[in-house]
Give the backbone structure.
Amino acid sequence: MYCTKEVQKDLIWIGGNDRRLALFEGTYPIPRGVSYNSYLLLDEKTVLFDTVDQAVSRVFLENLAHTLNGRALDYVLVQHMEPDHSAVLQDVLLRYPDVKILCNKKTSDMILRFFPMDLEGRFELVDESSTVNTGSHELHFVFAPMVHWPEVMLTYDATSKTLFSADAFGTFGALDGAIFADEVDFRRDYLDEARRYYCNIVGMYGTSVQNVLKKAGALDIAMICPLHGFVWRTAEDIAFILDKYLKWSSYTPEEDGVVIAYASVYGNTANAAEILACRLRDQDVPVQVYDVSVTHNSEIIAAAFRWSHLVFAAPTYNGGVFLEMDALLRDLAEHKIQNRMVALIQNGTWGPTSGKKMREILEGCQNMTFIDLMVTVPSTLKQAQLADLDDLADVIAATV
Ligand SMILES: Cc1cc2nc3c(=O)[nH]c(=O)nc-3n(C[C@H](O)[C@H](O)[C@H](O)COP(=O)(O)O)c2cc1C
Ligand SMILES: [Fe+2]
Ligand SMILES: [Fe+2]
């Protein structure tokens, strides 16, 4: 049975929620599910803004037929070809043989790569100079290359001042009946998931995001409709999420505070991390502690984008760094983490080298300031290391 939500009087959300998928893109845990948003504009012409993932195809196709209510589907607009939004495109093209595909040239090439169909005469290609008039609405297009695929395009409806933002401004988490961010306590309940979504999926393309934010800054935006999560419609909420994107895409910390990520085989490196956390809290410094063997990298990467100081603590492992820590640091470097203060704690019983190795990985990142004081734990903590941890806490607290 159909399940739709009115976004504007002639714009209907016809997407779906997946609460069963364990790993988004085969990588990211989504314990609270994910929504695949699709919007149908009911103007003189009807326009479908993207489709959905295969997982919710059934309810989506029912939503589409119900909302069209016997009308023809004139256009399907494809802003992004990643299958979480385009898997059902082929079904739409087969069910609505007269529908025209509105997209850019790169997207049309990708559609043919995904779907072996004869689409001769079905494309209406657009670029940034195009205007599509659907009756009372006027659509303009903003190219967003590498946010986070090369063909990505945003759409601006100049009539309703709505920005259809593709994956930008989206969040993990299924929609619990609400469609607008102002219907829920977004900052309390969803901001962490929005950050985890952005930082992990788009995080490494900060420069591309900054370019699009500049273009978006020239538009008068009353509503943002992303492909995952909530629609943004109050001026305050739109300013809030734009500000977060400005910070995340420029790798600027949101807040002063410390992430301590540790790895530990026998518990001694963990012991050092816990003590440091206590010493920092004693000086009123906000701290978040993670065991990298337990917490998924995506959580720690999001935390690293949020806070100003990063402490990594790991045992030496076969002459290198404990594996999960090695993987986390490489993942962080790939996500282009920058502009952070970094401190390191190493451990080793016969030849500690993990500190040097961790530093080598992070030296590939831009504008990282390493705190010179590296604490070495020679298997277990002794009085001398307690003094070192106190000193490290003082140095960190002085720069927070
Ligand atoms: C598989 C394995 C490989 C290790 N390789 C090294 C090494 O190359 N050099 C070293 O000094 N210690 C090595 N160690 C020892 C640990 O780094 C050391 O015991 C450390 O104190 C463990 O810290 P933890 O108590 O936080 O687990 C290794 C331990 C394991 C289990
Ligand atoms: Fe995507
Ligand atoms: Fe997506």
The chain has two domains: 5-249, 256-399. Residues 231 and 259 are 31 Å apart (CA to CA). The chain has a mean pLDDT of 98.
